[in-house]
Specification:
It is a single chain. The chain contains 9 helices and 11 strands. Helices cover 39% and strands 19% of the residues. By secondary structure, it is an alpha/beta fold. The chain starts with 7 loop residues before the first strand and ends in a 6-residue tail after the last strand. The strands form 2 sheets. The chain has a 9-stranded mixed sheet, sandwiched between helices. Strands 7-8 form a two-stranded antiparallel sheet. The chain has a single domain, classed as Carbamate kinase (3-Layer(aba) Sandwich), CATH 3.40.1160.10.
Length: 243
Amino acid sequence: MGKPRYQRIVLKLSGEALAGDENFGISQKMLTTVAEQIQEIHKLGVQVALEVGGGNIWRGISGSAQGMDRATADYMGMLATVMNALALQDALEKHKTPTRVLSAIEMRQVAEPYIRRRAIRHMEKGRVVIFAAGTGNPFFSTDTTAALRAAEIEAEVILMAKKVDGVYDSDPRKNPKAQKFERLTYFDVLSRGLGVMDSTAASLCMDNNIPLIVFDLTTKGNIYRAVMGEKIGTYVGREINDS
């Protein structure tokens, strides 16, 4: 067994990925799959932080589109991410992986408040950290939170776990001729509007030189492959050949 390429990572999980084959809610099967994969890399000594979305329960931008106040809708979305974080914590701890949930919105009965130094200390002690409630502010996505937290904790990479096996020039679920990219620059993502993450998040990654690996979460072992530096999914960095 080789040495992991990355020693400290942020794993970004979309809420939709946690729904599994369903359109809503949390799939216990998917939770188990994620927990097993994280346990695998945790045993290698990799320091793991998770940023989880809430789109499987509530999407703030959708609520806003239906006439709800945007800030209120976004706060509801943050609460959805807390639900997902607690579900992930339960699944991980059932796999004997010590875990802490850190929330940007204080709710001491269920999670610790997010403090940068505390998050880093937990990881140094071998605990998986789950970031919940986004940044604690409306108008910011969990993609932006992942980029912000990665910069704060000095993560070496952001692993973007999705339901597709990389970044395409169009939606592969709608266009069978969609072309997959093996490598992209941050500028490609921003200028071509490829939908890897929102522009604020992509800009944060570019400014702080944090690479992204976009890959398929549903293929077992992909998190391990990404951490070990195997070529999977789509790599996004400052230069096409900087990986």
